[in-house]
Design goal:
alpha/beta, 9 strands
Protein backbone atom coordinates (compact mmCIF):
# COMPACT_ATOMS: atom_id res chain seq x y z
CA UNK A 1 0.00 0.00 0.00
CA UNK A 2 1.31 3.42 -1.00
CA UNK A 3 1.67 5.79 1.92
CA UNK A 4 0.36 9.36 1.73
CA UNK A 5 3.09 11.75 2.86
CA UNK A 6 1.46 14.63 4.69
CA UNK A 7 3.81 17.56 5.27
CA UNK A 8 2.81 20.00 8.01
CA UNK A 9 4.45 23.42 8.30
CA UNK A 10 5.32 24.48 11.84
CA UNK A 11 6.42 27.98 12.82
CA UNK A 12 6.69 29.98 16.02
CA UNK A 13 3.20 30.79 17.18
CA UNK A 14 1.36 28.28 14.99
CA UNK A 15 -2.18 27.59 16.19
CA UNK A 16 -1.69 24.11 17.63
CA UNK A 17 -5.40 23.37 18.14
CA UNK A 18 -6.14 23.83 14.46
CA UNK A 19 -4.39 20.55 13.62
CA UNK A 20 -5.19 18.75 16.88
CA UNK A 21 -8.00 16.62 15.41
CA UNK A 22 -6.23 16.04 12.12
CA UNK A 23 -2.84 14.76 13.20
CA UNK A 24 -3.81 11.90 15.57
CA UNK A 25 -5.95 10.25 12.89
CA UNK A 26 -3.24 10.65 10.26
CA UNK A 27 -0.57 9.42 12.65
CA UNK A 28 -2.39 6.22 13.59
CA UNK A 29 -3.20 5.32 9.99
CA UNK A 30 -0.98 2.98 8.02
CA UNK A 31 -2.04 4.95 4.94
CA UNK A 32 -0.21 8.10 6.06
CA UNK A 33 3.13 9.36 7.16
CA UNK A 34 3.31 12.81 8.75
CA UNK A 35 6.40 14.90 8.15
CA UNK A 36 6.64 18.03 10.29
CA UNK A 37 8.90 20.78 8.99
CA UNK A 38 9.85 24.35 9.73
CA UNK A 39 11.46 26.80 7.35
CA UNK A 40 14.96 26.23 8.75
CA UNK A 41 14.38 22.92 10.59
CA UNK A 42 14.91 24.43 14.03
CA UNK A 43 12.69 23.91 17.07
CA UNK A 44 9.58 26.04 17.23
CA UNK A 45 7.08 26.94 19.94
CA UNK A 46 3.36 26.80 19.22
CA UNK A 47 0.86 29.45 20.32
CA UNK A 48 0.00 27.15 23.24
CA UNK A 49 3.65 26.92 24.33
CA UNK A 50 4.29 23.44 22.93
CA UNK A 51 7.94 23.06 21.89
CA UNK A 52 8.37 20.96 18.77
CA UNK A 53 11.49 19.77 16.94
CA UNK A 54 10.46 19.32 13.29
CA UNK A 55 11.59 16.35 11.21
CA UNK A 56 13.18 18.51 8.52
CA UNK A 57 13.58 21.94 7.00
CA UNK A 58 11.90 23.38 3.92
CA UNK A 59 15.03 22.81 1.82
CA UNK A 60 15.02 19.10 2.77
CA UNK A 61 11.63 18.52 1.12
CA UNK A 62 11.53 16.56 -2.12
CA UNK A 63 8.41 17.77 -3.93
CA UNK A 64 7.84 14.35 -5.49
CA UNK A 65 7.41 12.89 -1.98
CA UNK A 66 4.64 15.30 -0.94
CA UNK A 67 1.04 14.06 -1.12
CA UNK A 68 -0.41 16.97 0.86
CA UNK A 69 0.77 20.16 2.53
CA UNK A 70 -0.97 21.50 5.65
CA UNK A 71 -0.69 25.16 6.64
CA UNK A 72 -1.99 25.84 10.16
CA UNK A 73 -2.88 29.37 11.18
CA UNK A 74 -0.98 31.80 13.36
CA UNK A 75 -0.17 35.49 13.50
CA UNK A 76 3.04 34.95 11.51
CA UNK A 77 0.95 34.81 8.32
CA UNK A 78 -0.64 38.19 9.07
CA UNK A 79 2.79 39.68 9.79
CA UNK A 80 4.28 38.17 6.61
CA UNK A 81 6.98 36.45 8.68
CA UNK A 82 6.93 33.11 6.86
CA UNK A 83 9.37 33.37 3.98
CA UNK A 84 10.37 30.95 1.26
CA UNK A 85 7.26 28.74 1.22
CA UNK A 86 5.75 30.01 -2.04
CA UNK A 87 7.97 27.96 -4.40
CA UNK A 88 6.89 24.73 -2.66
CA UNK A 89 3.22 25.74 -2.81
CA UNK A 90 3.54 26.82 -6.44
CA UNK A 91 5.08 23.49 -7.46
CA UNK A 92 2.54 21.47 -5.49
CA UNK A 93 -0.32 23.43 -7.03
CA UNK A 94 1.01 22.84 -10.57
CA UNK A 95 1.09 19.11 -9.77
CA UNK A 96 -2.45 19.36 -8.26
CA UNK A 97 -1.20 18.05 -4.92
CA UNK A 98 -3.36 18.78 -1.89
CA UNK A 99 -2.76 22.13 -0.19
CA UNK A 100 -4.78 22.61 3.00
CA UNK A 101 -4.85 25.92 4.89
CA UNK A 102 -6.83 26.94 7.94
CA UNK A 103 -7.47 30.33 9.53
CA UNK A 104 -4.68 32.80 8.77
CA UNK A 105 -2.96 30.24 6.54
CA UNK A 106 -5.66 31.03 3.99
CA UNK A 107 -4.43 34.62 3.76
CA UNK A 108 -1.15 33.47 2.23
CA UNK A 109 -3.04 31.54 -0.45
CA UNK A 110 -5.27 34.55 -1.07
CA UNK A 111 -2.34 36.96 -1.30
CA UNK A 112 -0.60 34.80 -3.91
CA UNK A 113 -3.60 34.14 -6.17
CA UNK A 114 -4.26 30.50 -5.30
CA UNK A 115 -7.87 31.25 -4.30
CA UNK A 116 -8.79 33.50 -7.22
CA UNK A 117 -10.52 30.85 -9.34
CA UNK A 118 -11.63 28.13 -6.92
CA UNK A 119 -14.24 27.73 -4.19
CA UNK A 120 -12.73 28.62 -0.82
CA UNK A 121 -13.33 30.10 2.62
CA UNK A 122 -11.40 31.87 5.37
CA UNK A 123 -12.15 33.54 8.68
CA UNK A 124 -14.33 36.11 6.89
CA UNK A 125 -14.34 37.68 3.43
CA UNK A 126 -13.54 41.15 4.79
CA UNK A 127 -10.72 39.75 6.90
CA UNK A 128 -9.26 37.94 3.89
CA UNK A 129 -9.44 41.08 1.74
CA UNK A 130 -7.83 43.21 4.46
CA UNK A 131 -4.88 40.87 5.09
CA UNK A 132 -4.37 39.57 1.53
CA UNK A 133 -4.42 42.80 -0.41
CA UNK A 134 -3.74 41.07 -3.75
CA UNK A 135 -6.72 38.73 -3.25
CA UNK A 136 -9.12 38.63 -6.22
CA UNK A 137 -11.28 35.59 -5.46
CA UNK A 138 -14.27 37.25 -3.81
CA UNK A 139 -16.71 35.73 -6.34
CA UNK A 140 -15.63 32.23 -5.28
CA UNK A 141 -15.76 32.85 -1.52
CA UNK A 142 -18.13 30.63 0.49
CA UNK A 143 -19.25 31.75 3.91
CA UNK A 144 -18.92 28.34 5.54
CA UNK A 145 -16.56 26.43 7.82
CA UNK A 146 -14.48 24.44 5.30
CA UNK A 147 -14.34 24.11 1.53
CA UNK A 148 -12.51 21.91 -0.95
CA UNK A 149 -11.92 23.66 -4.25
CA UNK A 150 -10.07 21.38 -6.66
CA UNK A 151 -6.82 20.45 -4.84
CA UNK A 152 -7.02 23.26 -2.26
CA UNK A 153 -8.77 22.92 1.10
CA UNK A 154 -9.53 26.00 3.17
CA UNK A 155 -11.19 26.43 6.56
CA UNK A 156 -11.89 29.17 9.04
CA UNK A 157 -10.19 29.17 12.41
CA UNK A 158 -13.27 27.90 14.25
CA UNK A 159 -13.38 24.71 12.19
CA UNK A 160 -10.53 22.30 12.98
CA UNK A 161 -12.96 19.36 12.80
CA UNK A 162 -14.38 20.39 9.46
CA UNK A 163 -10.84 21.04 8.21
CA UNK A 164 -9.77 17.53 9.22
CA UNK A 165 -12.90 16.02 7.65
CA UNK A 166 -12.15 17.70 4.29
CA UNK A 167 -8.56 16.40 4.35
CA UNK A 168 -9.65 12.88 5.33
CA UNK A 169 -12.10 12.83 2.43
CA UNK A 170 -9.57 14.17 -0.08
CA UNK A 171 -6.94 11.55 0.80
CA UNK A 172 -9.53 8.76 1.24
CA UNK A 173 -8.36 8.10 4.79
CA UNK A 174 -11.61 6.30 5.64
CA UNK A 175 -14.87 5.58 3.86
CA UNK A 176 -17.32 8.47 3.59
CA UNK A 177 -19.52 6.76 6.20
CA UNK A 178 -16.64 6.34 8.66
CA UNK A 179 -15.48 9.93 8.18
CA UNK A 180 -18.98 11.15 9.01
CA UNK A 181 -19.13 8.83 12.03
CA UNK A 182 -15.80 10.24 13.27
CA UNK A 183 -17.03 13.80 12.68
CA UNK A 184 -20.30 13.26 14.57
CA UNK A 185 -18.41 11.77 17.53
CA UNK A 186 -16.08 14.74 17.97
CA UNK A 187 -18.50 17.46 16.87
CA UNK A 188 -21.68 16.31 18.60
CA UNK A 189 -20.71 13.47 20.95
CA UNK A 190 -22.72 10.99 18.89
CA UNK A 191 -21.39 7.53 18.07
CA UNK A 192 -23.29 5.16 15.82
CA UNK A 193 -22.43 1.60 14.92
Amino acid sequence: MKSENIFILLFNGFSDWEISYLTPELNKSEKCKIRYFSIDGSEITSMGGLKVKPDLSLEDIEISEVSALVLPGGEAWEKNEIKGINILIQNLNVDKKIIAAICTGTTFLGQHGYLDNISHTSNDINYLKAIAQNYKGENNYENTTAVTGENIITANGTAPLEFAREIFAKINLYSEKDIEKWFQLFKNGIWTE
